[in-house]
Design a protein that fits this description.
The chain is built from 6 helices and 5 strands. By secondary structure, the chain is α/β, with parallel strands linked by helices. The chain has one domain: Ribose 5-phosphate Isomerase B, Chain: A (3-Layer(aba) Sandwich). β1, α1 and β2 form a beta-alpha-beta unit.
């Protein structure tokens, strides 16, 4: 599986560790930055870069990292088709994919250590969105309907 990964300055050290872990596991990883610690960078820029890379087909899934995880998660979820979830445990990491077709996992570098981050990311990567139960299909269709209701084709929002 090919993945995209990005972080702001606060997530940079953990991003480098996660990227190395993934490469060591034999996965292809497209690094979208940050490429150094630059305290003046802005997390929305990296969230948008990663979300657009997924939408353009550069990779089916991505990993976003900032200090808390909250900022990049909020920003990424503004992009139609991106379903980002902040996960600091393995259950949420695989369940988010299996039930909700989560395509971006978000980590908070100030919240999670590298060993647990590796386990969480591995659970995310191994999970597949194969919904067999009607209740999960119904719920996922409702999520997509909400997105379609409020998002225009150009990515702007509209009122209901």
């Amino acid at each position: 599986m090919k993945l995209v990964i990005a972080s702001d300055h606060a997530g940079f050290p953990l991003k480098e560790e996660v990227r190395a872990h993934l490469a060591q596991s034999g996965l292809e990883v497209l690094d979208l930055g940050a490429f150094k610690i630059e305290p003046q960078d802005d997390y929305p820029d990296f969230a948008e870069r990663l979300g657009l890379a997924i939408k353009q087909g550069d990779a089916p899934r991505g990993i976003l990292i900032c200090g808390s995880g909250v900022g990049v998660c909020v920003a990424a979820n503004k992009i139609p088709g991106i379903r980002a979830g902040m996960c600091h445990d393995t259950y949420s990491a695989h369940q988010g994919v299996e039930h909700d077709d989560m395509n971006v996992i978000v980590l908070g570098a100030r919240i999670i250590g590298s060993s647990l981050a590796f386990e969480v990311v591995d659970a995310f990567i191994k999970a597949q969105f194969i919904v067999t139960e009607e209740r999960f299909r119904r719920r996922f269709k409702k999520v997509l309907a909400i997105e379609a209701k409020y998002m225009c084709g150009d990515g702007s929002t509209k009122t209901a």
